[in-house]
C-alpha cells in the first residue's frame, strides 16, 4: 500500500472534529491580542476512530492480534470467551505481550491513547524475575522498543474488578507504525475487553 493510500485510510477513520470556542463577546474578542480565528484554530481537536481491528479477539486464525513471549518455554495461556481475552501465567518466562500494529506513517504530531476494560487477579509474590511485576496496557508509540509504556497506570497489580483504563503517549516523529496491546509480566491472570486505540492532535 502506498503512502497516499495509507494516509487516505487513516484520514478516513477520522470521525469527530470538536471545536471549543471561547464565550467572550465580540468587544472582548476585538480587544484581545488574538482574533476569533486564531482561537478557533488553536482550540480545534481532531480525533480518529478506533485504529485497532478485531476488538472482540476472534479465534478463527485470521486475527490481527499476535502474541510475543520473552523466551521459548510456553509460560502463558491465551484464551477468549465471548469477546473477553484472558492471559494467564503457566510457566517461568518473565513476560508476554499480545498486540497488533497500527499504521501511523505520515502523522508527525499528536498523541495516541490506548484504553480497554481490564480485570486483574495478579500476584507479585513470589518474585519471578527482575522486571516490574505488573500487567496491563502496553503501548509503543513508534520508534524503538525502549519507547514502549509498560502498564504505566493503576491498578496494574493485585485484584480488581472490571475498570476502563487508559494510557497515552506522544507520537515519535517519523514512525510508520505504532504497537498497541497488553503485557503480562507477573503472576496470576489478566482479562481484557473492548480495546481501543485513537489518535488525537489535542
Write the layout of secondary structure elements.
Layout: H1 3-12, E1 14-18, H2 26-31, H3 36-43, E2 45-48, E3 66-69, E4 76-81, E5 84-89, E6 96-103, E7 111-123, E8 135-140, E9 149-150, E10 159-170, E11 177-184, E12 187-200
Antiparallel strand pairs: 1-2, 3-6, 4-5, 5-12, 6-11, 7-10, 7-12, 8-9, 8-11
Number of extended strands: 12
- Output the CATH topology of the largest domain: Jelly Rolls
Going by CATH, the architecture of the largest domain would be Sandwich
The shape, in one word, is: globular
Poorly predicted runs of 5 or more residues:
1-40
Whole-number total of structural domains: 2
Give a brief description.
The protein has 202 residues and is mainly beta.
Key features?
single chain; 202 residues; 2 domains; 5-stranded antiparallel sheet; 3 helices; 12 strands; disordered N terminus
Question: Can you tell me about this structure?
Answer:
The chain has three helices and twelve strands. It is globular. The chain has helices at residues 3-12, 26-31, 36-43; strands at residues 14-18, 45-48, 66-69, 76-81, 84-89, 96-103, 111-123, 135-140, 149-150, 159-170, 177-184, 187-200. A five-stranded antiparallel sheet has the order 3-6-11-8-9, with no helix packed on it. It starts with a helix and ends with a strand. The protein folds into two domains: 3-47, no CATH class; 50-200, Galactose-binding domain-like (Jelly Rolls). It has 202 residues and is mainly beta. Mean pLDDT is 81; it is low at 1-40.
